[in-house]
Structure formats: C-alpha cells, structure tokens
Amino acid sequence: MNIVIHRGTKEIGGTCVELTTNKFRIIVDLGIPLVSDRKDQPFDSKVLEGKSVKQLLGLGVLPAVTGLYVGDEPRVDAVLISHSHLDHYGLLRYVHPDIPIYLSEGARELIKVSDIFTPYRTGDLTVRIVGNGKKFKVGGFEITAFLVDHSAFDALAFMIEADKARVFYSGDFRGHGRKSALFTRIIESPPKDIDCLLMEGSMLGRDEQIYKDEIAVEKGIKDVLENKSNIAFLFASSQNIDRLVSAYKACRKTGTTFVIDLYTAFILHRLEANTKSLPQFDWPNVRVKFFKFHADKIAEAGQEKLLYLFNKQKIEMEEIDRTKEKVLMILRDNSLFPRVIGHIHPIKGAQIIYSMWDGYLTDKFQGYCREKGIAIKQIHTSGHAIPKDLKAFAKALNPKVLVPIHTFHSERYGEMFDNVKVLEDGELWEVPV
Predict the structure, then answer these.
(1) CB neighbours (10 Å) of residue 68?
(2) Which of 53, 47, 63 lies closest to 425 in space, CA to CA?
(3) In a 3-state reduction of DSSP, which class is residue 6?
(4) pTM above the 0.85 mark?
(5) Which of 378, 401, 420 is the last residue of a domain?
(6) Which of 4, 17, 11, 385 is nearest to 169 (CA)?
(7) 50 with 162, same domain?
(8) Residues 127 and 77 reside in one and the same domain
(9) 150-180, pLDDT tens digit by residue?
C-alpha cells in the first residue's frame, strides 16, 4: 500500500490523504485549508468563488488527485470523511458525483445543516453511512471505523487494510471531552499490528490549557453565571455539541435561561434521532431567539414547519432585556452582536464567555467590547489531544512507523515518539510491512 499526503504534513487544515494499491485508490478527508500558502495568514475562502476545478488545481487549493473531481473520469474508489469540520470535508462539492462518500450519520447531518446555513455547500453526494466498529470494503481495502472523542460530533478514525498492510488514520481526536471513554477504550484495547499510524498533532506548540477538560469548562461557565449581574453571552460554535451540553448543564444548575438561536435549535433537532441525550429547544431553561437570516434559510430549505415548532419557545429581545440577569445567550462575533446589545439597557457589565479557539478573538473585537464595558472571559478546552494523550495513543497503538499529519510542528514528533517518518506534501511513500 502506498500513501500520499497531499496536504497536512506541515499544517493544520485542508487535510487530504491518498492510499493506493495496484488496483484501487481511496481518499481520506478533503478539507478547505485554514492557512494561505504563506502559512502566516488565514486562508481566504473567497478564492473559491467562481473558480473552475482546473483553476483551483492550478492555485493548489484542490489537491492534485487525478480522477477525483467533476469533469474528469472517476478513478477514485471512495472518499472517507472523518468528521464535519470544513478543514476535513469542505472541498467535497468538487468530487465527481459517482464517487461514494463514507462518513458517520452525525457527520452527514451536520454537513447537511451547513449546506443550508453556509456558502460551503457540498451539493448532491453519493453517501454511505458507517458506524462505530463496523467494517466495510472498498475495492481491495478493508476499513474499520472507530468513533473518537472530538469537538466535532460523531467523529471517526479509520483503520485501513490492504496488501497485508494496516494503516490507522487518527483523524482529529482528544481524551478530555464528554466522550473521553472512547479514548480510554482505544488505549486499553487498541487495534493490533499497526504498520503505520497517521496521527494528528494540533496541540503541539500551543500553550497549556487552563481548562483541562469539558467538565472544567462546565464549572467555569457555572461560576460566571452564579456571579454575574447582567446578561452573559456564550461565544461558541453551535456544532460543538459538547460545549452546548456544558452550557446547558451550567444553566440548569444556576437557574439561568439558555437562549439559543434558530440555527442552534435546528442542529440539536436534527441530531435528536442520533442521540436522545442532547438538550432540545423545549427542554427546561431553553428559549429560542428568532433572527430573520436563520428563519429565511430554514424556510428556503422547505422546513417551515420547524419554525412553528420552535415558536413555542420563542423569546423576544424585550424579555431578554427584562430578565438579563438570568440569561445566557449564544452569539458570535458577527453582525448580529451589535444589534442584540443595542436592546440591552444598560449593556455595561455584560460578559462574554469566549468558548472558542483564541485565534478567532481579534484585537478589533476586544477593543469594541472594552468601549461598551463588556468583559470577555475565555473558558475553553481544545477539541484536540494534548501531548500526554498523544503519547499514550501512540504507545498503545505501537505502530512500526508514525507519520505526522494535521500539525504545524512535525519536527517535534521525533522528540516525543519512536519510529517517526516525516513526509512532505505530495511525497509517495510505501507502507512497510
């Protein structure tokens, strides 16, 4: 079996791995880059607008994989998607529709939601749903999916076997979320005889976390809610389901109303069939704020009946302002935020619980909040494994070769792990057996 990491040996985001045998080819993940070619600037997604496959290949945005894209003769047998973050699936819209896409049920639902609310639409795909521990075959490949703990819901790792070689692709994972038992399970009962481990290292080079796990995040949110005297805003991704659960639990413990938007209510509703343990719009302490943009998108998707359903728990800004001392409202740094705070009187003394990667927290926004008298408290834990868990993971799987991926610090792997092979983007490498 041969491996080519088309993107990801020296960066986080835009992951794309090709595995080949003499007769068959599969792709694992096909994500939008997070950084530009210079690596010191964010990737500008506007580059995608109006561009053909040929143009995007020329720009290096699309990985150079023959037989993968629309307009070419399909010569790839499948694409495996580990989870529903754009840096792992965001280029699926360019894949030839005859090529099947394998992913989890939860990932498919969240991608379908993103297709409604964001411009990164995948369009019509030939989807195959895979479940935890289930084996499936693609040509000469035998693949096993492993559910992992990650900030993306229903994220998977893959063990891929062919030509007597066994490759384990970690995807993005951690050991400190609400599904940490999944990490423990792999550590205690790891797959055997791994020839190559492709393992992420997103947390290498980052500062040590203040909030060690999701339980600590819940406690941090609870502490803010217990001591606040004005409204609090939660800045978090609505697709970070563990974070929504933490916020909801903190609200329940403090008698706080958790005000979610239609987008968040829609996500939780779509995932209800996957698990009954997720808070829903009609649970105690939950209310729904309608914004026109979200309502229009839901209506355009033919889901108007949900607007009537969510309307049962609708809350208006007047009530939010009147009860602000007991409100936690989910928002983000976008055009809605100034409009919302314009309805809160006084706004001075309000707080933002910033529960996202701090790289998104701009100086401009921090200055704006200072002018308004709004305090920002960062309460966050990463969706990625910390170094000690990376070490435990590598030790448990005990691969013949460990290959860095999804990291800006591949040079550190040799200091931390045994049998490391650092590849370059586009390098063809044969898995040793």
Answers:
(1) 24
(2) 63
(3) strand
(4) yes
(5) 378
(6) 17
(7) yes
(8) yes
(9) 999 999 999 999 999 999 999 999 999 999 9
Do the Cβ atoms of 333 and 365 come closer than 8 Å? yes
Residue 135: both structure tokens together: 């084996």
Residue type, 45: S
Please, which residues have CB within 8 angstroms of residue 196's CB and are 6 or more apart in sequence?
3, 165, 166, 167, 168, 399, 400, 401, 402, 403, 431, 432
The confidence score (pLDDT) of residue 431 equals 97
CA–CA distance, 96 with 51 (Å, rounded to integer): 16
CATH of the domain at 361: 3.40.50.10710
Report the C-alpha gap between 132 and 105 in whole angstroms.
10
Strand ranges (E), 70-125: 78-80, 100-103
> Which pair of structure tokens corresponds to residue 387?
């170094």
Reduced to 3 DSSP states, what percent helix, strand and coil does the chain have, rounded to the nearest 5? 35, 20, 45
Confidence of residue 325 (pLDDT cuts 50, 70, 90): very high
Predicted confidence (pLDDT) per residue in 350-406, tens digit: 999 999 988 889 999 999 999 999 999 999 999 999 999 999 999 999 999 999 999
Q: CA dihedral in degrees (268, 313, 245, 265; nearest 10)?
A: 20
Do 320 and 410 belong together in one domain?
no
346 and 297 within one domain:
yes
The answer on 368 and 232 residing in a single domain is yes
The domain total for the chain is 2
Residues 12 and 121 placed together within one structural domain of the fold: yes
Range of the domain at 369: 214-378
In which band, very low, low, confident or very high, does the pLDDT at 38 lie, cut at 50, 70 and 90? low
CA distances from 363 to 45, 46, 48, 337, 345 (A): 21, 23, 27, 16, 25
Verify that 260 and 282 share a domain, yes or no.
yes
Query: 291: which 2 tokens?
Result: 């914004």
Query: What pLDDT was estimated at residue 273?
Result: 80
Task: Give 61-106 pLDDT, tens digit per residue.
Answer: 999 999 999 999 999 999 999 999 999 999 999 999 999 999 999 9
Same domain, 228 and 178: no
Sign of the CA dihedral with 404 first, then 405, 406, and 407 last: positive
Write the pLDDT tens digit of every residue in 189-238.
999 999 999 999 999 988 889 999 999 999 999 999 999 999 999 999 99
Tokens 């007991």, residue? 326
CATH number at residue 122: 3.60.15.10
Q: Which amino acid is at 69?
A: Y
Residue pair 262/298 in contact (Cβ under 8 Å)? The answer is yes
- For residue 17, the surrounding DSSP H or E stretch is strand 16-20
